[in-house]
Amino acid sequence: MVELRHSSSSLGSRVASSPMKRDEDTSPLIHDHFSQHVEDHPRHSSRDRERSFWWQTYSFSPFSKDDPRFSQRGSRISLFLLLFVAIAGLISIFSILHRLNSPYLCKKDGIVLHCPRVKEKPSLWENPFSATTSWKPCAERREGGISDLPPENETSGYLFIHAEGGLNQQRIAICNAVAVAKIMNATLILPVLKQDQIWKDQTKFEDIFDVDHFINYLKDDVRIVRDIPEWFTDKSELFTSIRRTVKNIPKYAPAQFYIDNVLPRIKEKKIMSLKPFVDRLGYDNVPPEINRLRCRVNYHALKFLPEIEQMSDLLVSRMRNRTGSPNPYMALHLRFEKGMVGLSFCDFVGTREEKARMAEYRQKEWPRRYKNGTHLWQLALQKRKEGRCPLEPGEVAVILRAMGYPKETQIYVASGQVYGGQNRMAPLRNMFPNLGFTLPVPLLIYGSIKAVYLFRPVTKEELASKEELAAFRKHVTSLAALDFLVCLKSDVFVMTHGGNFAKLIIGARRYVGHRQKSIKPDKGLMSKSFGDPYMGWANFVEDVVITHQTRTGLPEETFPNYDLWENPLTPCMCKA
Question: Which residues fall in a compositionally biased region of kind Low complexity (predicted)?
Fold first, then answer.
């Protein structure tokens, strides 16, 4: 203690007698009235002087300001602080520049999608402009490139597939076939569009797609031939023989599976068929260049025949000019056919007789899933809660009005025969009168002819004459192609349930630019809102708007939330 006091007192005296202290005491900058005030002020008590003494002792360095060691250490600290501030400033500048230059991209946190804020006012018909200028398609072929493909007789062998299902399922199968042929360095035989039990259509590849464009556009990627080679005489063997068929391919198989299990058989047999081939190639377990090739096939190589494209342009033009002046239009993919309602095993509003008939239909079509029917009520509740039930026409109408679409909105309907007919469509028709036409139909009632007014939605059949559509009725897939293109070119596309049709359209609209709105309703959240008897209209509107402001086809990474067909951004698009 003695030593501490001694050193402290010596330090205090040294500080008090320093030149700086003396200069401060005799400084001419101190005004006379301030000095007078100090002299008139009573002297500090001993306790104040002691407090001041200890503050000086612990707040000052053990070195005097005149000491060179004090000056050197202070300069080092100042230099360090200056360097720290400079580095922090550079990091901030780079961070700001990166944020300004980074493309518009939404991030998903669980089920919530977070998107960058924009200054633009929300639009009913377009996504924010900043979202559309950030990304561009990058899957097209490179012009002037040199092909490294070997001649046809030097590839691993020939690959043959049946593209099953409807038009959109067949389209995905064709894209996957090109990708698998590339993986194994095989020659692809032009895929056969197999007749489906539901569609019952005998359409050939060349009846829908431009074969010459398909082969020429992919000539630097995959060797493609129109038919089975002539040296293979028994062509029926590819359709029937087990020896020529690979059947053990799992769903969403990785690229390595084909190299390990299919390629050796192709090299041995020289020609092999893959069956079944629906969803037999994964997305995030194949190389990026293979996914990019699938996009090249889907968005560039697979072109519909010119007559299909021309007819679709005519339908779009008539849709935009229905009122005599150009107007935007909405395309609604309404999936509420009897088959879809039955297959969903969901419960819908209806009479007892209607529900009894649906139960009989389900028991007949899907006996294994139906069983005795006792578990179906609980299953229906669970599926609706999870958002796995098709939206009814009335539910779609309420959601669209809550989003702000006026009753004058022009709506094109892509749908089969709606289950429930006129009564089921009534709420949608009442909220959106421009959805279709009301036509008088003469009926014989109690011995007299009376006119009964029936509602018919705006479809391709209403926009074109029977003569104009006659050439397309030969193939069911041709009519499906017209629906596909009219929906693709719409200002707003609305899906009501999953499926390859909606998935491919949303993906294509994203690929050509995210400006076109593609609305994907949150059916799980909407089921809670519809089931809440105490929710008022204002609260419902707020829920709908907030929930769906990011569910409009904005830029978002593909994996793991989407597959390639619904969102091609990650492998097939690049920064604009």
Answer: 7-18
